[in-house]
Each structure stands twice: as C-alpha cells, then as structure tokens.
C-alpha cells in the first residue's frame, strides 16, 4: 500500500519535470534551426556581396602567386637571353668579316663607333617609358612633365642603389620578385611619378652626381675587355676567342662569392666546371689548325698572344658583370634603368672616350683611316647588334644573376662554330662537338638548379 502510494506519488511528481525537459529540448532545437537559417542567409548575403563588390575583398599574394611571378620572370629572361645569344653570334661573324675579309683592322675605332651608338637607347627608353608604356600616367600633357616623370623613375632607382650599396645582399634567382620588377604597379608608378617633387634640390644634385660617376665607372670597366675582344679578333681564331671569353662565367662566379657573398652550391660549381671543361676541349682541339683556316707557320705565336689577351679580357668581363650587379642593378624598375644606363654609357663614350683615337694614331698603334661606305655600313650593323646584345645582357643580369647570364651566353660557342662552318667553310672537329655538348650540359644543370630554388 505504501509502496504503491509512494510509486504513484513519484510518477505524478516526475511527469511535470519530463514535460519541462521536453519543452526545453524543443526550444533549443528551434533556436539552433533559426541560427542555422540566419547563418545560411548571412552566407548567401555575403556571397552576393562578393559577387557584386569583388573589389571589396583584399587579395593577398600567396606562395603560388610568387612562384607564378618567378616562373614568368624566368621565361621572359630566357627569351631575352636567346636574343642576346643570337645578336652576339651575328656581331662576332660580322666583326671578323670587317677586320679580315675587308681588311679594316681598326679595333678601337670600331669599338668607339659601336659603343657610341648605344646613346640611341636613351631616347628610345624615354619614349617607351613616358609615352608608350601602360604605366605612364595619362595625366601628363606637356613634354616637360614627361621628362620630369622619366627623371623621377631614374632618380628613384639611383636612390635605391645609393642607399643599399653599403649593405648589399646577393639577389639570387630563387628570391620571389613580384611583377613590379618588370613593370611598376599603379602604386609604385604613382610614387615614382611624384619622384620629381619627392627629392630636394640638393638630393637631386647628389643623385645626379652619383649616377654620373656610376656611368663613368661602368663604362670604363666595360670598355677595356671590349677593346681586348676587338683587338683579338685578328690575333686568334673566332672559336678560340669565343671559348676563352666565355670563361668569364668562372670569374663571375668567383667574384660573386667574394663581392656578393653568394653561397657555394655544389650543382652550380659542377655546371661551371662542365662549361669550363667544354671551353678547354674546344680551345685545345683547335690549337693545331692555327685558327681561321691558316697555316700554323707564323701564326702559332701570334695566336698565343691573342689567347692570353683574351683570357685577361674574360677576367675583366666577369669582374665587370659582378660590379654591375652590385652597384648598378636596382630593385626599382631594373629594366628601365638598365636600358637608360646603356644609353648613358653611349653618351659618355661619344663625348669623352674619343681621345685614344688620335693618341693611338700618334704613337703608331692604330693608324687612323676613314672607312669606305660599305665598311662604315658594316660597322653600323656591328654597333646595332652590340646595342641589342649589351642591353639584353644587362637585363638578364638584373633579372637573374651574373653566373646565369655568363653561362647562358656560353651557348654562343657551338653556335659560332656552326656559323663558321656554314659561312666560312671551317671544319667542325670532335672538340667542337664534345666541348659544345659539355657547355650545354652545364647550362642545363644551372637552369635546373635555378628553377629548383
């Protein structure tokens, strides 16, 4: 009795509690459904907002974007390098034709005309930057405003060089460089376009002075090995000259370690030594022929002197490439600055470096004789090819590294041998084939190493 009464009392007491719990559960379920619906509506509205206002969403460059920009930069550098190689081969063969077949052996005069011709690059780059380029501000109306804008671009790059020359850090091809390296973004363009007013008069004078002495130094460093190359054209075979001058990659790598603090990478060392081995094979295998299809008698000692001068020139070329990378390769608009510096080098050559012509004539080293119409036309063609080669080479050095550019140009060795065979009917020996393959193998390893990093 008592048990049943107690049981009934508990049942009657538990019934309201269960009902209350059930009501709370239903309320929580409904609240969750409402929250889910609100979240769905919120997502839908956000999606609509994204579709209707895409500019409101910030876009950040991730690793994939940087890799894509790196790949694009590398492809562009490879194309420019191909143009550089082709122009070098044509310039080499035409220079040989003028000094040997035409008999106009005036190396410094040819060099003076060729390098003075580079001055054309200055107005050409100005027209492209201030008028044609998509980054040029459309608000510019007068010629003076466009000149000020172009000067601001160069001044900004010069300022970048001047402030980072003391604490330079080697720029490897593995670094992620944004697309602004190739073409300034709208933000950087806006800041550069105001560069004419961003610097005081004193700062402008300081930057102009820095650019002047930089141009003088780079021009002088480049003139010496260039003159040795023109001088050696008639002193040794073109195969030997091209092969020895391409050892500049060894000196470029050596000076990169000493001056740019570049790390020693085993695969890069292997690539350079494969290329140097190919150079040695080509040079030694063509030694017995006397070069240029001539007999060994009376030519062997002359060729040795040419090879020694070519080796000195190659060392100076490697040194100049690294100095250019360290002191004349800005992170701000490097392509524009490289072409502008090429034009300024032409102006310096035209206005200041003419004095060796009467000096060499006076001491009897190079008797001055005006060229004929055909000879002068050929010299102008050499100058045009030299302008294309130098401009492309500077761009490749700025976009990649001195070692990559130097080893890449080594592809000219087998190409020069093939051109000599096709035009001058000079035989291609086993040394040209083996050495050429070794050089190309070294270049392939270097390309793979750069892409891997």
From TrEMBL:
Pfam families hit by this protein: PUNUT (PF16913)
Keyword terms of this UniProt record: Membrane, Transmembrane, Transmembrane helix
Classification via InterPro entries: EmrE-like (IPR037185), Solute_c_fam_35_mem_F3/F4 (IPR026505)
Transmembrane domains' residue ranges: 74-90, 110-132, 211-231, 243-260, 265-284, 304-324, 336-357, 377-396, 403-424, 430-447
Domain of life: Eukaryota
Region of interest: Disordered: 1-62
Compositionally biased residues, Low complexity: 17-51
The protein, known as: EamA domain-containing protein
């Amino acid at each position: 009795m008592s048990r049943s009464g107690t049981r009934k009392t508990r049942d009657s007491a538990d019934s309201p509690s269960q009902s209350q719990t059930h009501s709370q559960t239903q309320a929580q379920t409904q609240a969750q459904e409402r929250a889910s619906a609100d979240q769905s509506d919120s997502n839908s509205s956000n999606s609509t907002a994204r579709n209707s206002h895409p500019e409101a969403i910030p876009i950040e460059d991730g690793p994939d974007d940087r890799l894509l920009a790196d790949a694009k930069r590398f492809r562009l550098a490879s194309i420019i390098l191909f143009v550089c190689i082709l122009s070098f081969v044509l310039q080499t063969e035409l220079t040989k034709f003028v000094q040997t077949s035409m008999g106009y052996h005036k190396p410094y005069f040819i060099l003076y005309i060729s390098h003075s011709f580079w001055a054309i690059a200055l107005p050409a780059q100005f027209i492209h930057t201030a008028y044609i380029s998509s980054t040029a501000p459309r608000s510019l109306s007068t010629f003076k405003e466009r000149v000020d804008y172009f000067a601001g671009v160069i001044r900004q790059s010069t300022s970048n060089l001047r402030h980072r020359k003391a604490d330079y850090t080697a720029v490897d091809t593995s670094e992620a460089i944004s697309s602004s390296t190739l073409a300034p973004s709208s933000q950087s363009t806006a800041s550069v376009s105001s560069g004419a007013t961003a610097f005081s008069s004193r700062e402008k004078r300081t930057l102009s002075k820095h650019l002047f002495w930089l141009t003088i130094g780079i021009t002088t460093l480049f003139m010496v090995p260039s003159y040795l190359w023109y001088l050696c054209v008639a002193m040794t075979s073109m195969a030997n000259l091209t092969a020895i001058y391409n050892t500049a990659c060894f000196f470029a790598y050596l000076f990169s370690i000493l001056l740019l603090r570049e790390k020693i990478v085993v695969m890069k060392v292997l690539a350079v030594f494969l290329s140097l081995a190919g150079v040695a094979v080509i040079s030694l295998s063509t030694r017995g022929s006397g070069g240029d299809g001539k007999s060994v008698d009376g030519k062997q000692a002359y060729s040795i002197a040419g090879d020694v001068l070519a080796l000195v020139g190659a060392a100076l070329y490697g040194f100049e490439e690294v100095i250019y990378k360290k002191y004349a390769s800005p992170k701000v608009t490097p392509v524009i600055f490289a072409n502008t510096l090429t034009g300024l080098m032409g102006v310096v050559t035209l206005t200041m470096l003419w004095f060796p012509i009467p000096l060499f004539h006076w001491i009897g080293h190079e008797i001055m004789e005006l060229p004929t119409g055909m000879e002068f036309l050929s010299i102008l063609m050499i100058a045009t090819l030299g302008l294309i080669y130098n401009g492309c080479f500077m761009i490749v050095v700025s976009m990649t590294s001195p070692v990559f550019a130097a080893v890449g140009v080594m592809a000219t060795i087998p190409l020069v041998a093939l051109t000599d065979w096709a035009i001058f009917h000079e035989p291609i020996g086993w040394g040209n084939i083996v050495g050429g393959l070794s050089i190309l193998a070294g270049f392939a390893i270097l390309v793979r190493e750069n892409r891997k990093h």
